[in-house]
Fold these 2 entries.
Entry 1:
Amino acid sequence: MTHKPLKRYLPILQWAQSYNRQALSGDLLAAVIVTFMLIPQSLAYALLAGLPPEAGLYASIAPILLYAIFGTSRALAVGPVAVVSLMTAVALQAVAEQGSMGYAVAALTLAGLSGVMLLAMGFLKLGFMANFLSHPVIAGFITASGILIAASQIKHILGVDAGGHTLPELVVSLSEHLDQTNLITLGIGVVAMGFLFWVRKGLKPLLRHFGLGPRPADMITKAGPVAAVVVTTVVVWGLGLDAQGVNIVGAVPQGLPPFTLPSFSPDLIRLLILPACLISIIGFVESISVAQTLAAKKRDRIDPDQELIGLGAANIGAAFSGGFPVTGGFSRSVVNFDAGAETAAAGAFTAVGLCIAALALTPLIYFLPVATLSATIIVAVLSLVDFSILKRSWLYSKADFIAVTATILFTLGMGVETGVSVGVVLSIVLHLYRSSRPHIAEVGLVPGTQHFRNINRHKVLTDPSLVTIRIDESLYFANARFLEDYIYDRLASDPAIRNVVFMCSAVNEIDLSALESLEAINQRLQDMGIKLHLSEVKGPVMDRLERTHFLDAMTGQVFLSQYDAWIRLAPVPNEVQMPEVGVSSIN
Amino acid sequence: MTHKPLKRYLPILQWAQSYNRQALSGDLLAAVIVTFMLIPQSLAYALLAGLPPEAGLYASIAPILLYAIFGTSRALAVGPVAVVSLMTAVALQAVAEQGSMGYAVAALTLAGLSGVMLLAMGFLKLGFMANFLSHPVIAGFITASGILIAASQIKHILGVDAGGHTLPELVVSLSEHLDQTNLITLGIGVVAMGFLFWVRKGLKPLLRHFGLGPRPADMITKAGPVAAVVVTTVVVWGLGLDAQGVNIVGAVPQGLPPFTLPSFSPDLIRLLILPACLISIIGFVESISVAQTLAAKKRDRIDPDQELIGLGAANIGAAFSGGFPVTGGFSRSVVNFDAGAETAAAGAFTAVGLCIAALALTPLIYFLPVATLSATIIVAVLSLVDFSILKRSWLYSKADFIAVTATILFTLGMGVETGVSVGVVLSIVLHLYRSSRPHIAEVGLVPGTQHFRNINRHKVLTDPSLVTIRIDESLYFANARFLEDYIYDRLASDPAIRNVVFMCSAVNEIDLSALESLEAINQRLQDMGIKLHLSEVKGPVMDRLERTHFLDAMTGQVFLSQYDAWIRLAPVPNEVQMPEVGVSSIN
């Protein structure tokens, strides 16, 4: 890595020099398909973020180009995504009035802050931080966010002016405005939703039935939102439904993304710093998950720290070109990959396609009903809603279940920022709690082997004067005292004991607190006339212990293997059977 | 435990029924000695907490009695201690003016809140929470607190009116008031300090030299503060030095502890809740450390959860009898133990002694100079200051070093509450960071054994088609992705590999995130034509895996021991030598 710093920071140099005609044709086809998919999506997510529709197009152009230069994934499609757009709306409504100039500037600032944070995390190699979002917490958060996003769009389907950022707020506000429902809007929204659901579930089997291959069938179904946009726009225009109270997108400026400046006001930055941090982490996690999944299919490797730099550049690009926070989107990246994108050039071509749309197509969407965009969002996010994680975690691990349940409930009840924070903190606390009460097993020799297992689970040989304790956790401050308590309790009940062996095969670290506990145990055992030994101490742990006086003070020995300890310390080693080749496994 | 609930919650029932004359004489002697030691200490710590001197006596009476009923330690002496008194002063000065009625009520409220928290933690069995204060953080905190406490007392030695709660504040304030120094006060303070230091360092060898036994010599040196109090009081009274500007204790009410009520004001409680929480935890940690050390000497066991109840009762007692937060003190508990205290009755007798003092002795301390009390505090706390933890942690573990250094710097620079919070949070963050990048070793067979060790550290047998990875950490969300990255990198460079074994001897837990990573690894290895096996999976981990579909989907097997895996998977098992008895250990 270090000998080619430029290529490390500019992945484009890696693929550009071997670019050929075959890659070009794959990339061009993928770009055309993704462009058609991205136009309604980007308009819709701008709406979700509370911004004018053109912001969605702008947020898809410069960011895609910058990611193509700095990102490591060849298939990732960067732009506005549902969850980040919702988080953007939540963050912005705390600092500015929706529709005001301040709101748009705050969106640029949020993207800029997020970009700077992602870049900083990338240069500091902090990509591992994303790992503290556990899979169940992410799953719970995505599910709850999907519900929140869908609920937030119902007002556009009804054509009413409701609000709220949590499920209870949304439900109350919607029920208060239910009597103002515009029935024509509702009709358009419901039909569009029904059509889009049918496209997802029913169209593909139908196309296959008519002899289309699986990939073309898949591509056509992805064009469903475009069809819905075209048809509903034509209907509203033809029947003049905007005069009947149907909300339409209206005038969208025609042109390339403008050059914009985010605000550098310290007050605004202070208000946005925490949301920007959460958006960065959530966006990064979503993006890296997709990128790694797709890279794995082609045996590519993703560099998480370089991905941070790619996404950081993309967000800074959004800040200076009229956009809002962006990240790698799941569905469009999969489409890009399936359509045959070979390199990040596919993204660059998509950006060109969106530029054409911004220049030429915007007058055509004047009569596009907002309800259609909301229908697109609802159908897209409801596919994210998946409660199976609740059952799966309940069966496998109660701690994961608690974390995922709390994440879902807090996200729905208190909003996205609280929800994800509670999930992260709770999973860390539960992890610490479990590791503070480690599993400790007393072990004996499995007859006919050199292998030692739990005396409560296996038929093993033991010796009354020898207690072997296998500690199933690293020893650190949170569990150091637990070991002391355990060993004193064990010894108090048994006067025959002369030797204690701590089998350290699972001890990956002994911190200073734990070392002091070991010293105390050694001292106390010495007072009782019992020797303390260690076995199977790992290399790194042993290196550290050798820098202390503990090994000199220790009454017993350090054995390379537990079997060595048994041979030396068990008084009747001759009764132990010799191991035989071919011992069968337990499974 | 559950079959004798009353004895569990009332440890007094355990020792009271076997109480005899021998225990009585030991307890009485210890009580007399501790009473003499506690009188100046309790006056001094009341001063440190910013309260009138009698509060120190009151805080030593009801709490001792209640602890004798509910506590499990037979030697712990409960009452005001230095660090908790300093934390009390910091907490109270944020809510009330020192010397006001509100200040004293806030002290009662703080004790009451702390008592309720300790009781709640005891009933909820949350004693393990104290384990999250690592030994180095405690050592750093105690050292820094000792410096802060000593610095806070210099104003009394100088006889000036300085203030501040951090070292920079104290230094600035003292230097501003240096010109107002009362030279007579300074003389008394310096002589008293010199005398007390000499008593600690020089008197005991002298007494031993004159033929006194070690224990009587020790007891007499502990009476040093009493001698300093008597002599300086007589000098001030005889020479009328109070008229020369020497601050004296003055009139102290004569009588038993009053019945007092803490405040139930929600505003006050909200302000004090965080300090009360920190005081509870710090007090508990200090107390349990002493209690366990002393119990270990007599092979007694301390029940941490019952200790919480004992200390909780003691603090609630303080709240209703004119005291302030208390805990088990280190030096007086050691004196109590050394003087021969057999049961908690020694504490009860100490309470009687303090009642007599409160009734009869208070007029005698009218002329006691405040500088003497401050000298007592300074000499006591400077013995707590010990920077050796810095060197020890530097040599052993950089993470511990960072935590202890931060604790010391933040305690000195930002105060006790910030200091201890930073220490706890930092040690948890560093622990998580380390466990998120686990040690992973590729292992091979140690010739002539069934034992497997790191190929980079030991001469071992390996096979080109078989890669065995020993994972030296539990697999959980923070490191799940790290394992994926590691294994994909390892396999990408080596096309000969046909079998991968994860040796799980150090894996104590596999959470749902890690299970999903294992599923992903299994799938990807299958695509590459490589089988995934597990070996030495622990009982509890195996139980959980069996509740999932992972074992069905896994391409390989689960082996009881790594040696079984080697026998089955290495193509040339015949070349492996048979183990011999008496393999020597590495140390």
Entry 2:
Amino acid sequence: MTTETQPVNRFERRRAKTREALIGAARQILAESGDTSVSIQAIAERADVGFGTFYNHFPSKTDLFDAAVEEVLDEYGQAIDAYLTGVEDPAARVAAGVRLSVRMVESHPEVMKILRRRGLGHIHSDRGLASRALEDLRHGVASGRFAAADPVVALTAMGGSLLALVDMKFAHPQIDGEEAAATMAELMLRMLGVDAREAQCLARAPLPSA
Amino acid sequence: MTTETQPVNRFERRRAKTREALIGAARQILAESGDTSVSIQAIAERADVGFGTFYNHFPSKTDLFDAAVEEVLDEYGQAIDAYLTGVEDPAARVAAGVRLSVRMVESHPEVMKILRRRGLGHIHSDRGLASRALEDLRHGVASGRFAAADPVVALTAMGGSLLALVDMKFAHPQIDGEEAAATMAELMLRMLGVDAREAQCLARAPLPSA
């Protein structure tokens, strides 16, 4: 069996490359303007592939943009996961997740620009980081690490707060993102019932390395 | 002196009416699809005004959509303010503001659909509700009602959390919005350092009437 991520022959490799070029063009558009009313012709030109090729890969423009957003969500999740592996305490995971996300505004600007524009609709996604964050919240409440609260509403607050912070950092690049992220992490931990002093310490602890 | 909100003669009244029709069309578009790539011709048709009239009122399409979003932000702020007048405790204001906003998903769907799409960029606006919420946060920190925290980061968390909750309510209309909003209010108060038990009571207290 072959999959698009492990193409086995020249035909499959070319096909995967074309698909990736189309998704790459869609990502650029989402990051630059977010204007998805652009024509398929313009997308194909940007991807440097033939116009007719488009429909071999995606039934519609919407499907392409959706695939691009999903790829970005997966990349974001994988980048954060690489740091959080081995961090067991749900409170430490929340604090590090917030701080690492804001760092990604500078290290992964395209990913974070797309999240800024499209993330709101994916906070309750059942894939990627959203579902693992929900697991962390459930686990934290069940173990008593976090105070009782509906984990879905807590995830809503965390996701929305994080997107608003990412938006602020893009809109005002001169702000101290590290400090703002540490303060946000502290607020999230207090919200989850972590003692104020411990929240302050955890939010400023050394970050895990990837 | 005349202003556009208090036109004194027939010419001014007609002019104000045309402007309002254009803004109304822009609001519909923002609420329905958010697709601002629509042509000026289509906007004029929807507003039932002549194409040439457009430029008597707005130098560009962007200016029209910006004016529509500002009008919506003002309406939102005024609707919440009408309820919060006379509520002095910053914690009670925060809790009621969250809960009233979620109610507006049903009572003011157009306003809230536009906020859902465009609100993220206006959390730190120096007009309307955002600036008054920032005042409440500063006041609450200064008086000791809230724990110390950068009020701008706290406003970011509150604004983002609220938008994410509004998004969730639109995406899943079957959820109990009242209960989710009360839980969110409780989380926001805990985040601001209000004692957990008091946060729970305040978040479920009777709402002020307009």
